[in-house]
Design brief:
Length: 726
């Protein structure tokens, strides 16, 4: 296609500083001498400290110090803090930042901080320090004032997991509530309805248990105050305070230098070029004249990121760009879910980082050149927010220019710069705009995907019913009478859920389709196609490293990854469970037999192919006689196999897949049509299927099946069973 490239400029952004006369004495006493707080930081501190609000929502811009706003209660008042981040990459990034804050505020020995991720829990148990994850969680929580974790682990504690059969259900979660006062959810806006429902369920339980005696506070960072989260908070009767710096006039957009005593720079002015090309096509067209040219022109004052939607595209780009950049003495490294921890860490120091969603959220790296794709408005703004946060690379090299290349769908490009129908253009070529104006334009240009607003009524109720049922356990039944009554009222007010009917439905579904219950109870959904991978690809080794692998690099070669992505894009060799386990042990990976047996396949990864292969689900059963009641409904099915051209491992894989059962939903409609008609999010995973009797349609698995069911019910969409579909 012919490229349509246009350019705009965004103005620098400054954050309003708090007047010294407004800073409380206790903060002045403990803060670093050279630190000035932004208005939104002090407003957040005041709202949390006042006791007037249960929930505070801070919507400050990227780079404006939201994390410090969350930490002030601990740094100043020694209030214990549990911070939750959506990715482990962000947990690691924040661990470094918290350590710096503790050092700057001279709180060594007073404030202890640590991380708690699933990988760390497994590592500690494997090392023999504790026999159970519950004991590790209890120790980490009891011995640290700041605990950096993810919402997944807290969700499972709130669902009373990690306990033994003879334990009181609240043995672990109740201890967590004794130890922590403030619960922070960072970058929560990236989550969908299932995670929102899960967090609201946890918050309702926390409030019901602690009440007014030991009230807890909740802080959401970067969350949108409206939408589903805002509605549930309002229905639940939480007292909410929104800190909205943009609406409150706490930002100044100007190329002029304002008074430094009043304003702090947070985002530098940037040149943003828009193109409707896809990432790999853009790199092919502009490798020499744009991408490499920027680094040649600015040399030591150039550091960049190339963020794409597809892991396969990211790795193909690295393979293409690395030798070209190397000839100029420049480095290119991947930062994706398929890259190992050592490689991801090293990528932050590379001249050009090529990443995916692993670097979308909150991770702070210093760049002045950015190329990025975007799935939707939120992804666009999140990725653009990586640019302009720092004036240098952290090694003494100052950035003189900030440049972005935004790769957007052609219809978005049209809406932004040409208008559509009677709607005028949202931006003008060569125009100057504030980041706020650009944000509004981007949100108008991208369609709003399905929000799955009925998910709580369709599937979220299972989490509520499980908690309610557990509170009848003989060990807590008598002490939790008031808690059950409060939850009974809350569930009705928030989710319109009758606890009596929910308990009956929960018990019946557990008996009939336990796999569906487990899927609905999970935080992010299961991974039915998770494979074991031994990564022997060229990108698994850092450039310039010797043949001897470090312990961490060796373990990095053992990975779990999605079969569908691998089947479509990777050069694979079948290993089988025994050989995979043997090689994994040799590399130092400590996997249990249960973990290995639960995988959907076991492969050696040789590399990523140059072209994507078509993958089709072959359903080894006849569905032509199905009635309408089975189409568009979540069910547990067997007989799922794959059809992948030009591979030699398919028979071994399919023999294994035939033995597995999957939570799935089927619809007699092509995936593209289904996505279009139901306004499904761009990366929603729906696959084509062909049944043994020749019927074709769409199939979704695991959590996507539950979400698709909610969307189908909301729109009354017919999925099959005699009707002519699509």
């Amino acid at each position: 296609m012919m490229e349509r490239s246009v350019r705009i400029t965004t103005l620098p952004v400054y954050s309003k500083l708090t007047a010294e006369s407004d800073v409380p004495h206790r903060i002045k006493q403990s803060r670093p001498d050279d630190l000035r707080l932004s208005r939104h930081q002090l407003s957040t501190y005041d709202a949390l400290a006042s006791g007037d609000y249960d929930v505070v929502i801070n919507t400050a811009m990227t780079g404006d110090g939201k994390s410090l706003a969350a930490q002030l209660q601990t740094l100043v008042d020694s209030r214990s803090l549990l911070m939750m981040y959506p990715t482990n990459e962000l947990v690691r990034d924040q661990e470094r930042q918290v350590a710096q804050a503790v050092d700057q505020w001279k709180q060594h020995g007073k404030i202890r901080a640590t991380t708690m991720t699933g990988d760390r829990l497994r590592e500690i148990v494997a090392a023999g320090q504790f026999s159970r994850k519950a004991a590790v969680i209890r120790s980490l929580a009891a011995n640290n004032e700041i605990l950096l974790t993810n919402p997944d682990i807290v969700h499972y504690m709130a669902q009373f997991f990690y306990t033994r059969r003879d334990d009181a259900p609240d043995a672990l979660f109740g201890r967590l509530l004794d130890l922590f006062d403030l619960f922070v959810f960072d970058e929560f806006h990236i989550f969908q309805a299932p995670q929102i429902v899960a967090v609201i369920n946890a918050m309702l339980l926390i409030r019901a248990i602690t009440g007014e005696v030991q009230p807890k506070r909740f802080l959401f960072l970067s969350a949108t105050p409206g939408g589903l989260l805002g509605e549930y908070l309002e229905r639940a009767g939480f007292r909410v305070k929104t800190i909205a710096p943009a609406a409150d006039g706490f930002y100044l957009h100007t190329f002029d230098s304002p008074d430094e005593s009043l304003w702090r720079p947070i985002l530098r002015g940037s040149e943003i070029n828009f193109s409707a090309l896809r990432a790999e096509a853009w790199a092919e067209a502009h490798l020499e004249d744009t991408l490499l040219a920027f680094f040649k022109e600015h040399r030591s004052g150039a550091k960049g990121a190339f963020i794409v939607n597809s892991v396969a595209a990211a790795h193909r780009l690295v393979e293409k760009l690395r030798p070209v950049f190397a000839r100029e003495g420049l480095t290119v490294l991947p930062n994706t879910g398929l890259a190992g921890a050592e490689t991801r860490k090293a990528s932050r120091e590379a001249d050009l980082l090529v990443g995916t969603s692993t670097v979308d959220v909150g991770v702070d790296f210093r760049i002045n050149f950015l190329v990025f794709e975007s799935r939707d408005a939120g992804t666009f703004l999140q990725r653009l927010g990586r640019l302009g946060r720092h004036s240098d690379d952290g090694r003494g090299h100052r950035f003189e220019q900030f440049t972005a290349h935004a790769l957007v769908p052609s219809f978005v490009h049209e809406r932004l710069f040409a208008g559509r129908g009677a709607d005028p253009a949202l931006l003008a070529d060569n125009g100057e705009f504030t980041r706020e104006h650009l944000s509004v334009a981007i949100r108008c240009a991208y369609p709003v995907p399905c929000e799955f607003r009925s998910y709580a009524q369709k599937w979220g109720w299972i989490q509520s019913a499980h908690v309610y049922a557990q509170l009848f356990n003989p060990t807590v039944k008598d002490s939790y009478i008031d808690v059950r009554e409060r939850l009974k009222a809350d569930y009705w007010d928030v989710f319109h859920l009758s606890t009596g009917r929910a308990l009956q439905g929960y018990q019946a579904l557990r008996a009939e389709a336990r796999q569906v219950v487990e899927e609905a109870q999970s935080f992010r959904g299961g991974s039915p196609f998770d494979c074991g991978v031994i990564d022997e690809s060229a990108l698994a080794r850092l450039p310039g490293s010797d043949e001897t692998l470090s312990q961490e690099a060796a373990r990095d070669k053992v990975k779990r990854y999605d079969l569908m992505m691998l089947a479509a894009n990777a050069d694979l060799e079948w290993l089988g469970p025994q050989e995979f386990a043997r090689v994994a042990r040799a590399y130092g990976a400590d996997l249990t037999p249960t973990e290995v047996e639960g995988m959907a396949g076991w492969f050696r990864l040789r590399g990523i192919g140059s072209e994507r292969k078509n993958v089709t689900i072959m359903l080894q059963q006849e569905v032509g006689a199905w009635g309408a009641e089975r189409w568009g409904e979540v069910q547990v099915i067997a007989g799922v196999t794959l059809e992948v051209p030009f591979v030699d491992w398919l028979d071994e894989l399919n023999r294994h897949l035939r033995q597995r059962k999957f939570v799935a939903l089927l619809c007699l409609c092509a995936p593209k049509e289904l996505i279009y008609k139901l306004y499904l999010p761009p990366m929603f995973e729906v696959y084509p299927f062909i049944s043994r009797d020749g019927l074709e349609g769409s199939i979704a698995f695991a959590r996507d099946a539950l979400l698709l069911h909610a969307a189908i019910e909301e729109r009354g969409f017919p999925c099959g069973g005699g009707a002519v579909i699509c």
